Amino acid sequence: MSTPSPAPGTPTAVVDGAVPSGGPQPAAGRRGSLGPVGLVLAGGLSVQFGAALAVGLMPRAGALGVVTLRLAVAAVVMLLVCRPRLRGHSRADWGTVVVFGIAMAAMNGLFYQAAARIPLGPAVTLEVLGPLALSVFASRRALNLVWAALALAGVFLLGGGGFDTLDPVGAAFALAAGAMWAAYIMFSARTGRRFPQADGLALAMGVGALLFLPLGIAESGTKLIEPATLGLGAGVALLSSVLPYTLELLALRRLPAPTFAILMSLEPAIAATAGFLILDQALTATQSAAIALVIAASMGAVRTQVGRRRNAAPPQ
Fold first, then answer.
1. What is the CA radius of gyration of the chain?
2. Across the chain, which distance is largest between two alpha carbons, in Å?
3. CA dist list (Å): 120 to 53, 55, 202
4. What CA–CA distance (Å, rounded) separates 209 from 98?
5. How far is CA 195 from each of CA 74, 97, 112, 120, rounded to the nearest angstrom?
6. Phi, psi of 16 (to 5 degrees)
7. Is the Cβ–Cβ distance between 118 and 291 less than 8 Å?
8. CA 267, CA 80: separation in Å to the nearest integer?
9. pTM of this prediction?
10. From residue 72, how far is each of 8, 146, 214 by CA, in Å?
11. pLDDT in tens, 239-261
12. What does the mean pLDDT of the chain come to?
């Protein structure tokens, strides 16, 4: 699963690519960009290897139990670190953060249901179609129809021409997780405008954890508090939520948002690598080609949108 992006309210000035006083320094910028790019890639590796660890934990705690542990531990850590202010927010603010938390919980729950049924690489490939569709529809450019067709070709190959090589229920869960990922992106932006720093993200995590707690208890019961299960669940939370969020926030202070979005499109390949190394989930040549097509479609859609913004921007 792809990791959800940090609340956009924190690093806006730097994300927008403001040039420091003293004029641009191209050579230094190129050297300096290796640091934040490395942070983003490390965050992506952390997310997908955390997802692989979660798949290994599912026989012990169940898919719903794993999501509960991940959200609960991550929420506790984020709330302790951010210490968000609870007073002074309007009813609309709380409504936004609650919907944000619901989207976050649904995205995680649906993805882990998919990961319990199909390999990680195909699961993340199908999931990434949600943000891709959001990008295509938001930009309203004819060229993005090409990227959409490319992505659909990847999905067609991924299913062996008719999804006969994938569990259809798992594929449906992955597609639903992608829809929730798109909703997460929209409400992440709204939450970032209404709450300072990462306060809204921390509160939304708390909402998601509270929503999933009854489901996790119903499925796993006391297994959730067994030392081994709790320890592995904490590892999933740290790898899939806390660590990547921190790395991405640090990277976004020095990395333009378009570059960040393009790097995020590499997650299907990272997920396939994690599934192969940890879970022995080998991919066929056709499935590898399908993942490559979806990655290319994601990168193309992002670059098209970035080009449109550059052309529309007034000259400085």
1. 19
2. 62
3. 11, 9, 27
4. 11
5. 19, 9, 29, 33
6. -70, -5
7. no
8. 29
9. 0.69
10. 22, 41, 12
11. 888 787 667 666 666 655 555 55
12. 75
